[in-house]
Amino acid sequence: MNKIIFLTTFYILGLIIGNIDYSIVLGLILIFFVLIYRKNIKNNFALLIILALAFGILNYQIRNKEEDKLSEVGFANNIVITGRILSTPEFIKEKDKIRFYFEVKDANFEDEKLENINCKTFVTINNPDNINEIKIGNIVEIKGKLRTPIASSNPYQFDYSKYLKRKGALTTFYGEKDCLQLIQEPDFSYSNLDFNNSSCFCITS
Is-contact 72 128, C-beta < 8 A? Predict the structure, then answer.
C-alpha cells in the first residue's frame, strides 16, 4: 500500500511539473535524483517511480497542448468549419444564443483548406434559426469567425483561455443566425453522452 501511495505521489508531482515552464528539464532533474538515491530503493521500484513521474508529465502535456491547427490560424473572419457537436448545447434564452463544444474535422478560409485536423473549439451562435438541428452528435457545417482567447495577465483574474484549454479547446468560434447547416445525424443516440468536460474526442467517417 505504501508503494502505491509513493507512486501516486510521483504521478501527481509529474502533473504539477507539467504545468511549469521547462517541465522536461525539471522532470529529468528529479529522475536524476531518484537514480542517485536508488541504492536505497530496489531497482525495479526505482524504475516504476521514474515511469510514474514521466507519465504524469506526459499526460499533462498531452491534455494541455499549447496549439493546434486552428490556433495556428488564430484569427479569421470568414471561415467554414465542418465537424461534430461534442457537448449538449447550452441555450441562453435571455441572450438568445446557444453554445457548445465542437470537434472540427475540416476548415475552409481564404482559399485554403485544412483537412482531418481534429481540433476542438467552443462555438457560440447568436440568434440561432435552426435550434432543432443543433444536437449533440450531429455533423454540421458552420460559417463564422475564429478567435483565440487572450490569456489573462492578472494571476488573480479568471483566465478564460486556461479554462477552455482544460476542456481541450484552444479557440472560440462565433456564428450568426442561419450560419449552421446540418450534414448528418448520428447513427445512434447521444442522449446519455455529454463530452462537455472531455478533452479526448474523435471523428469517424
Answer: no
CA distances from 6 to 1, 35, 71 (A): 9, 16, 38
DSSP 93-121: GGGTEEEEEEEEEEEEETTEEE-S--EEE
Q: What is the pLDDT along the chain (205 residues), one digit of tens a residue?
A: 566 776 677 667 666 655 555 455 566 656 656 665 655 556 666 667 667 766 666 666 556 566 788 888 888 999 999 999 999 999 998 889 999 999 999 999 887 899 999 999 999 999 998 888 999 999 999 999 999 988 877 877 888 888 898 888 999 999 999 999 999 998 765 544 454 444 334 443 3
Prediction pTM value: 0.64
Residue given cell 446540418 in the structure block: 182
Cell numbers of 17, please? 511539473
Q: What kind and span of H or E run contains 55?
A: helix 43-63
Per the CB < 8 A criterion, the answer to whether 91 and 131 are in contact is yes
Residue 111: which region, alpha, beta or left (left: phi > 0; alpha: psi -120 to 50)?
left
Cβ atoms within 10 Å, residue 202: 8
